[in-house]
Amino acid sequence: MSIDLVVPEEVELTTLLDELRKLSWASADVLKAYARGEQPPYGFQKSLTIEEGGDGPVSAADMAVNELLISGLKDNLTFKEWDILSEETSKEKSFQLDNFERDWCWILDPLDGTKDFLQGSENYAVHIALAYKQKPKIGIVLIPEKNELWFGIVGIGAWFENRDGCKNNFSFSERMDISKMVLISSKNHQQSILKKLLSTMCFAETKTIGSVGCKVASILRGEADVYISLSGKTSPKDWDMAAPHALIEAAGGIFSHADGTNLIYQSTNYFQSGCLIASHGKSHQKICQKVMEFFSIEEPKYIV
Description:
Elements: H1 13-35, H2 56-75, E1 83-86, E2 104-112, H3 114-118, E3 125-132, E4 135-143, E5 148-153, E6 157-161, E7 167-168, E8 182-186, H4 192-201, E9 205-209, H5 212-220, E10 226-230, H6 238-250, E11 254-257, E12 275-279, H7 284-297
Parallel strand pairs: 1-2, 8-9, 8-10
Antiparallel strand pairs: 2-3, 3-4, 4-5, 5-6, 6-7, 10-12, 11-12
Helix pairs in contact: 1-2, 5-6
């Protein structure tokens, strides 16, 4: 095993990152083509519209990028002793989570922020994570419409690149008082208990966008400070959280349950239920404490 535990011993990190760059930018080309109603590259079929009764642009885009990523990881890397778990393959009838028991596992979301994509928003992303023993070690978040490819390697660091490959620095905000912090929240997944929680937190401002990857990137840019996820009728899944989790942790931030415990992946199911909090880390414990105080009175079921 490599000393930093971010890749298997047989894998050269630089070579792996180069391949992930190629797959990411290829994914960007596919998604942007579908978003604009253009013919997608790499032989993928042009999507039907939802009104025409076909799969719709979102389904076609999901499946195309899913195929591109999985085939790329399988065909272009010599190491084969890792699992590949994706949102799209999890929907197949033959899917069994029990089959994903290797130490190393890719966790993919070919299109995070589906509703934003449909609405013509720029806030959709591709998530690529590599987990080791249920903990994400590498997180990649591609934001096609911003021409940003974010890399996070736990224990090494984080950065983002444009298409030209130049690395760009980023900076968390210096806001530490909760009353001065900016919350980044879901645009399409708001429920009454979350609204009540946020009203008691008294953040200075709330911004709403779709993809979790886009939310975490906004924290890394210093545009926001904290993201709070709360399960409603549905729960986020491993592929929603793994890549953003690794990214913000590699950058020096924190992603945890409200009680401070770690998120665990590839567990008995792939749900990430309860109340989850991502932040730049400077006041993470205070935020968690306030959230726990709220739920101890209002909704104890959400704290785990």
